[in-house]
Amino acid sequence: MTNTFKESFYFFQKNSLKLLLYTFSIGLLIIFLAALIVPVFFSDMGAQEINTETVKPFAQLLDLFVKPIYTGGLVTLIYALAMGNKASIANSLFSGIVRWPYMLVANILTSILVFAGLMAFFLPGIWIFSRLFLVPYLIILKKQTPFSALIQSYQYTKGYSLVILTDMSFLIIFFIVTALSLDVLQLTHPILLLILLLLFQTMAYVIYYRHYEILEKKFHSRTDITPPV
C-alpha cells in the first residue's frame, strides 16, 4: 500500500461525515428529481410498461447533466477540507453549478477519449485515464477551460501513470473484497451495493486530489527553477 493511498484513506476517515453527507445528499436529490420528472416523460405509458430498459436512456441523460455538478461540488468540498476552510454542501454545490458548462464539455471529451482507448485493445483507455484524471481539479480549482485542462493534465502526469494506477488498483481490490464479504454474509442488497459504490467513488476523488497536490507542487517546483546563464 502506497503512502498516497494511506494519506488519502486517513483524510477520508477524518472528513468522512462531511464527504458522505454531501455524496448522499446529492444522491437523494437526484432520486427526488427523477421521481418528479420520470412520470412527465412517461405519462403516456402505464406503470406496468415502465421498466429498467425504458428508463435507462433517461437515466443516462440525467447522469450526463447532473454528474458534472456533483463532481465539481465534490472537488470543491475536498479542497476546502484539505485547506481547513469552511466547507458546506450548499457552497460546494454552487461551485459545481457555476462551472457546470466547463465540466460538461470536459466530461464528454474525456469520456470519448477513454472510450476510444478502451476500444483499442483496452489498455490504451486505462493509460488515457491515467493522464487525464486531473481535468476536474484544473477546471474547478484553477478555473481552466476544458481544452487547457486536458493539455495541462497530460503535461502534469507525464511518467506518472503507474503511480495513480497502483493506488486505484488498491482501491478496486478493497471494493471487490468488501463486496464479496457482503455476499458471504448474505448482506448483498442493491441499496448496500449502491452505498458501497458511492463510498468507492468518493474515496477515488480523495485519492485523485492527493495526487493533484503532489503533481501541482512538483510541476511548479520544476518550472520555477531558473536556468543557468
Order of helices and strands: HHHHHHHHHH
Level of helix content? over 70%
Q: Tally the helices: what do you get? A: 10
Approximately how much beta-strand content do the residues carry? under 5%
- Overall average pLDDT: 84
Q: What kind of sheet is the major sheet?
A: none
What is the radius of gyration computed over CA atoms, rounded to a whole number of angstroms? 19 Å
The beta-strand count equals: 0
Integer tally of domains: 1
Low-confidence stretches: none
Give me the secondary-structure category.
Answer: mainly alpha
Shape: globular
Ends distance? 43 Å
Question: How would you describe this structure to a colleague?
Answer:
By secondary structure, this protein is an all-alpha fold. The protein has one domain (3-42, 52-219). 81% of the residues lie in helices and 0% in strands. The chain has ten helices and no strands. It has helices at residues 3-14, 16-41, 52-83, 89-98, 100-119, 123-132, 135-141, 146-156, 161-184, 190-223. Helix 3 (52-83) packs across helix 4, helix 3 (52-83) crosses helix 10 and helix 5 (100-119) runs antiparallel to helix 6. The chain is globular, with a radius of gyration of 19 Å. The termini are far apart. The mean pLDDT is 84.
